[in-house]
Design goal:
This is 3-ketoacyl-[acyl-carrier-protein] reductase beta subunit. Keywords: Fatty acid biosynthesis, Fatty acid metabolism, Lipid biosynthesis, Lipid metabolism, Oxidoreductase. The chain is of the alpha/beta class and about 240 residues long. The protein is built from eight helices and seven strands. The chain has one domain: Rossmann fold (3-Layer(aba) Sandwich). The protein starts with a strand and ends in an 8-residue tail after the last strand. It binds NADPH dihydro-nicotinamide-adenine-dinucleotide phosphate.
Length: about 240
């Protein structure tokens, strides 16, 4: 039986590229996003068969619990979990409302904690199980205008390292990929002039650049609790 990979936030952007790459590697995919039609469309474009699309808001405990029960019932035990579901709201702290802070923390940090917790029992039953969370270089370096977003991503780094320690004895690995500027809906408002000149490699990243790093960490049996930066050298200049 091929490996089952759950990609939360797999309908668009980085998650969609990860889903494509994993399907090409022969995995069965469970693609999760709030918009079920978008998840279905993403699944329809995947290589291979037996993929499923599910609608779930990762920040809602009950929805996450039910979704992972459905995944297990429909598709079996989970080998890989990739947490790419995320939102961004750029604003100076003085102009950030509490509900915006809560939304960022709930989706980007709590969401990953809830999906990991919901997946762990199932992952205990598969060999070579691995989780990759998607952080951000701004979670490592900080960025003016992104206090709440970077707090959520720094939190995700701490969570990743702690969970890696917690489940290492059960042979589940947990790592984090920290992208720089990647060309997706999230950065659609940014022009090359806004950022590309500050990137040593001279271009924004593509979702596929991040997907390769995710695949590497999922398939590397002796790496856990690590952060892999995929940013064209951006953090060297930060
Ligand atoms: P996109 O906006 O292109 O895609 C986000 C995905 O997450 C969509 O599938 C969206 O589907 C899903 N999603 C958002 N909120 C929720 C939720 N509450 N529950 C379930 N799914 C949700 O973003 P990117 O691909 O650019 O970003 C992916 C990850 O990478 C994010 O965590 C982001 O913070 C991180 N990142 C991105 C960078 C970039 O430059 N693009 C840089 C650094 C990090 P739907 O709306 O249907 O729910």
């Amino acid at each position: 039986m091929s490996r089952l990979a759950v990609v939360c936030g797999g309908s668009r952007g980085i998650g969609r590229a990860v889903s494509h790459l994993l399907a090409q590697r022969g995995c069965r995919l469970a693609v999760v996003s709030r918009n079920k039609d978008a998840a279905r469309t993403a699944v329809a474009s995947l290589h291979g068969e037996d993929h499923i699309a599910l609608s779930c808001d990762v920040s809602k405990e009950e929805e996450v619990q039910k979704t992972f029960e459905t995944i297990q019932k429909t598709s079996g035990n989970i080998s890989y979990l990739v947490n790419t579901a995320g939102i961004n709201r750029d604003a100076l702290l003085l102009r950030t409302k509490q509900e915006e802070m809560v939304a960022l923390l709930h989706t980007n940090l709590l969401g990953a904690m809830l999906t990991c917790r919901a997946a762990l029992r199932s992952m205990l039953r598969t060999e070579g199980a691995a989780i990759v969370n998607i952080g951000s270089v701004v979670g490592l370096k900080g960025n003016a205008g992104q206090c709440a977003y970077s707090a959520s991503k720094s939190g995700l780094e701490g969570f990743t390292r702690s969970l890696a320690k917690e489940v290492a004895s059960r042979h589940i690995r947990v790592n984090l990929v920290a992208p720089g500027f990647i060309r997706t809906d999230m950065t659609a408002g940014m022009k090359d002039a806004d950022g590309a000149s500050s990137i040593p490699l001279g271009r924004f990243g593509e979702p596929e650049d991040v997907a390769q790093a995710v695949l590497f960490l999922l398939e590397s049996p002796y790496i856990t609790g690590q952060v892999l930066v995929v940013d064209g050298g951006l953090q060297l200049a930060m």
